[in-house]
Amino acid sequence: MNLTDKINAALDKPVTGASGDDFDIHAALDDVLCGVGMSERDAGGTVSFTGADPVVPSTLRLAAAPALGLTAKSVALAKLWRHRGGPGQDIAMDLRKAPHRLCPFYDGKWEKLNGYPIVAPDDPFALSFYRAGDGRWVMPLNVYPALKSRTLKLLGTPDDALAVANAVSRWDGAELERAGADAGVVMPMLRGTREFLGTRQYRDVLADLPLIEIEKIGDSDPEPLPPGATQPLDGVRALGLGHVIAGAAIGRTMAQHGADALNIWRPGQFENDILYYTAQVGVRSSTLDYARDPEAAAVLRGLLRGTDVFYANHRAGYLERMGLTPQEAAAIRPGIIHTTVSLHGQHGPWANRVGFDQTAGCVAGMMNLEGTDDNPALPPIKVVNDYLVPWLATTGVIAALMRRATEGGSYRVHVSLTRVALWILSLGVLDKDYARELAGTGERHAYLDPDTFTADTPCGRYQGVTDQVVMSGTPGAFRTVLVPRGSGRPEWLAR
């Protein structure tokens, strides 16, 4: 079945107690891995799963989805380890812990700094639905300063939730969505899933978009990975212009398994602490005014020439303005693995729209499934798409690194947030009552506490959540855990 057929089948027959759940997680894993030329067998050992949805009371598979993303990148890492001469290994994933890794900070218990949860400031644009005058709902998730200023200007309202609600109520939902897109702000109108399947963006772009895009974009000599590795990604460098979670955590995912990940920030660039302290774990951090200072831009290009992987998740057109498109990066550094994240895909009528995790959920129908068309609701795990993106992107990066090692070449890797949301829906939908009654009950559906780690860092004593997946041979470890944002030198560590 194609993506559309899978989603329609999931909507037609939600899982109930009467129907039973015939979901085959191993088949779903091989479906993900097949897209990058791999299979479960590439681990060189057994791959096992414990537990099953529902673990949390959701219509979505919020245990299986992260379990699949985490296990896919673990199989890719295991294959890379074997490629570098290491033995095969077993991989074990406990679905009963997986939702915690999907959003480690949502309940304020597991990610902490100096004993306190990291929290976001109150904001009328933070995870709030507003009803337009025609009864449609929008989510103006504009929590970054520049986005917020443009949104308040568009709505003609002060920074107050009631004022925002009154302003939104004077608009037609679709008109406000279009006006928001034109203004460059986040303003998705909520849709049912089938309504979204009828949009041009879905029909023309997302319906046939691979979950993980990998494309060879240039020729170069083969680059075997250096010998003497103790982790799968030892000796690999990853240069990031990442922020929020979906792009930034590519660095975290790679750093956990040996890569030297360095993220570059512009002077004055804003980031929410709650996002920095989750997504930038393991990543070194530096500041360069590369957009305005030619000398800083030259330093950035010097870093690019020394890297293996480049990753970014800025709005459409940004990399073009910086001269860092896949083709331009490959000209500077033949053999580059150029990795990007988009919202709705890189083509089509919505290609320039901006947004975050929940934006993808809004347009793809997740909020309507969790609630109703008239009364939408957030999933119980507030962030469901974001972290899946870096796990899947890293899976693609590893596939490209192995191709480069044997055949050479520069590669483009791309993952779309909304395509990930659609993939989650394609895994199956659970009946609301069934999910609420069964979640958290018995051994199979228990919601277990996550495995955590602690470290003394320059930012304070940090407690974080591990990946909840156990790799018997290369479990992973961070060399850098947490550093103040932008505080390091813009240079590579010695290989």
From TrEMBL:
GO molecular function: catalytic activity
Domain of life: Bacteria
Pfam family, one: CoA_transf_3
InterPro entries, A to Z: CoA-transferase_III, CoA-Trfase_fam_III, CoA-Trfase_III_dom_1_sf
SUPFAM superfamilies, sorted: CoA-transferase family III (CaiB/BaiF) (SSF89796)
Transmembrane segments: none
Name under which the protein is recorded: Carnitine dehydratase
Protein source organism: Streptomyces luteoverticillatus
Organism placement in taxonomy: Bacteria, Bacillati, Actinomycetota, Actinomycetes, Kitasatosporales
